[in-house]
Amino acid sequence: MATLAENKRRRIEELIARTSEAGGVSLFRDAGRRLLRNPTAIVGGVLILLFLIIAIFAPLVAPHDPVQRFPELTRDLTVDHIPGPTAGHPLGSDPLGRDFASRMIYGARQTLFVGVLATLIGLLLGVLLGAIAGALGGRVDAIIMRLTDVMLALPSLLLAITLVALASQSTQWTVIIAVAVVNVPIFARLLRGSMLAQRESDHVLAARALGVKRHDIVLRHMLPNSLTAVIVQATLTFAVAILDAAALSFLGLGDPDINRAEWGLMLGVDGVRYFEVRPELAYFPALAIILVALGFTLLGESIREALDPKNRR
Amino acid sequence: MPLLDVRDLSVVFQRRGTRPVAAVDGVSFTVEPGQTVGLVGESGCGKSVTSLAIMGLLPRRGNTVTGEVRFEDTDLLKLRPAELRDRRGRDIGMIFQDPLSSLNPVIPLGLQVAEVLERHQGRTRREALREARGLLDAVGIPDPSRRLKEFPHQLSGGMRQRALIAIALACKPRLLIADEPTTALDVTIQAQILTLLKELVDNSGTALVMITHDLGVVAGLCDTVNVLYAGKVVERAGRHHLFAAPRHPYTDGLLQSVPRLDADRGGRLHQIRGSVSDNIPWSEGCAFAPRCDRVIDDCIGETVPLLGGALRCTNPVPKGVRV
Amino acid sequence: MVRVISRRLIQLVATVVALMTLVFFWLRSLPGGPVDALLGERATPQTRELLTRALGYDQPIWVQYGRFLKNVVTGNFGNSIRTGEPVTEVIGRAFPATIELAIAAIIIAIGLGIPLGYLAAKHRGRLLDNATIIVTLVGISIPIFFLGYLLKDWLTQDIHLFPPSGRISTGLGNTDVTGFFVLDGLLTRELDASADALWHLVLPAFTLATIPLAIIIRITRASVLDVLDEDYIRTADAKGLRHATVRKRHVLRNALLPVVTTIGLQTGALLAGAVLTEKVYNWGGLGTLITDSISGGRDYPVLQALILLAAIVFIVVNLAVDLSYAFIDPRVRVK
């Protein structure tokens, strides 16, 4: 008898898995097709790809070491003069006599690093909290939600400023963590909301009716379906993260390491300080930030649009 | 002279990057003053698109409308948008399928009725509201004074559809187009709404174009029936004729699909094979051929004409065969 | 309605207390804490101890916490470590400047955002629409402090259209009544001062408005497009209503619902943006106060009060938005 019931259960579970999987696969394939037809998505994707290639191959692309100070540049350096383009230094010098072009190129790496880590940490913590809240419900859910309420009581950049200010001194990590923490409540609520919606959906109800174990339902049925919303949010978060990091640098709360070549830092510190002497020091990192933020925003929104059931045919 | 004379109406949809689709493919029919005409067919056959095309309510982009829609002496398709706006709501009223989504959620019901009177009959707001109260009363909405100030979500489904009827008939139009007016309602309410429509139309002498997939609605209401399939009229007949002796296999199939009280218990309901996705293009024969029980070689090859202006079939159901 | 408001107010208080508690304990857990920040690391143990006692940091943490809560409730935030003045005074002085700036920015964002978003939707897919989409995308991707410098450089250096910084020209002695310079000028009939203050306000307000403006345009556009697809718009057209009536009475009213929520959320972005904008234009409001309280050694009493203030403003604005929703959307009113 037991075996019969068990076999039956397993078969039906397979069926549920297959149908939800089939839905998933065709949804993703369908969305992928729409994405490739969408010029907005292509522009966003190309911008990000370009950014990734530069970041990965920075040592091959950059003409010089980004922290080396060149005598031919420092020689002409004064408070109100920073050398422009010369032979061998296509974008001229930075305020310390370093090759600005190389710093821009290596900047892709550091910016990617800050953006990816801040997004990932925020995502992981948020998803964890949201999954716990959504899966357990009840008191745990209430406590986690009140916690996110508290975090959301401050506008995001102000929360980041507060966090950095509360650390006794800032490093690159305080910036990354502050920007990451700001996004935790957003991810947490997103995942929880999506899981609650899932909890009432037919395939989860069916699984529950069959007595599938709770952690199996959460891990195999609810989480995968909830993650699509998280992916979209993560793409959009990346853009916000590098903008927030730049803002923190501008407020003097950024990474104090003067060797670090990161676009936000270059723009927020030197770019602004020497704006009247040599505005290119601001223009280039600003342009780079705008293009990358634009790339991620375009891609994120296209993915959301592509996954929107309203646009399915 | 007919009140409405639709001649060779076609609507072609074309979205960027897709093949053009003819949702309505050369439809012609007429409506005499005071007459009730049915447009019948399954979803996707083009009946709703036809009604929207007559009203000029299709989205401006992505479609091409050709043919003629003569209302009395004017071809509505040739009117400028502003001229058409003068006629809509005054000469032709329309009611829609889903009464909840068809009413504006944030505007009190009274204003939604009154605004059409303000627009076409030059009433002041106060006069229009007073008249609106009478109209709500006439469509059987209890306590109309209170309802005037209420919002659509505070009304029941049947009440909302009554309100929409009041709006459509406010200016005593000569033609009313009803697009599946009972589909979204409970069965008990459906009958009430149909009775109300019939009463109002009969009393005021308004002509009615009834768009439906429900043959029961047709049986109770329509003088003449146009059966649409894949954007074309496939059969046209008076109500009694159609029900007594359908000639087109599609009409026949539709009629046989209706559950009957006098059928054998446990007997299977008739069904039409396949779905509209099996259709072949009209240019290659009869679109219905792949689903037809009476298909013969002659059905495939070239477009079947509307024989005698009433039947589009090469191998029709013989007269008097059906029990 | 009253029950909804009172429940939301209780929630507000609970959230703010929780936030303050977190900030309090975090601050006390830092090595050194405010004493180090105030004296620097080379101070003698004696001075250090003296100050510790004076500030009450020698008492048990829960005593400190109790006193802290009492002070918060009575509005006593102690004195600024940096200047020695009472925190409430320091903040009170900077408050009108930021509010003036924020109000100007939100007026710009709403006043331009809704019409532009509506126009873009109306011309969907055409040049105006595409241009709007691109500009708003750049608007949300640009670091606004950079935009501030850019505008400042173009409009105050290259062409002297606007004053580069400050709230009012020196020498224009305006009488301080409310702290809102534009308003003060009007109240005291010093119209030249009012105009001058307004002139100073333009660039910072535009800079601060950038992100909310871009977002309001995008939301309005999307929302109008959604509403145009609704059945009740088709009904309105079927009634033969004039184009203008359909747009005004039926489209706009419904399309504004999501925009109102967005405006509430954007006030938050505005508070954060003020910190950046004020630094660019040397504005001397709360944003400047935050920056100063952090960079010149952490001025914790001031910071605490500022965080509290920001949270309260943000939550209250969103509460107000939720309530105003009830007046636009009858479906909410009934519940």
Oligomer: heterotrimer
Give Rg of chain C in angstroms.
24 Å
| Class of secondary structure makeup of chain B | alpha/beta
The rounded Rg of chain B comes to 21 Å
Number of domains of chain C: 2
Q: Could you characterize the architecture of this molecule?
A:
By secondary structure, chain A is mainly α. Chain A has one domain: Orthogonal Bundle (MetI-like fold), CATH 1.10.3720. Chain A has 12 helices and no strands. Chain B is of the alpha/beta class and 323 residues long. Chain B starts with a strand and ends in a 66-residue tail after the last helix. In chain B, strands 6-7-8-3-9-10 form a 6-stranded mixed beta sheet, with helices on both faces. In chain B, strands 2-1-4-5 form a 4-stranded antiparallel beta sheet, with helices on one face. Chain B has a domain of 74 residues. The mean pLDDT of chain C is 84. Chain C starts with a helix and ends with a helix. Chains in contact: A-C, B-C. Chains B and C meet through helix 2, helix 3 and helix 6 of B and helix 10, helix 11 and helix 14 of C. Chain B: Keywords: ATP-binding, Cell membrane, Membrane, Nucleotide-binding, Transport. Chain B: This is Dipeptide/oligopeptide/nickel ABC transporter ATP-binding protein. Chain B: It holds the Pfam family oligo_HPY. Chain B: It comes from Paractinoplanes tereljensis.
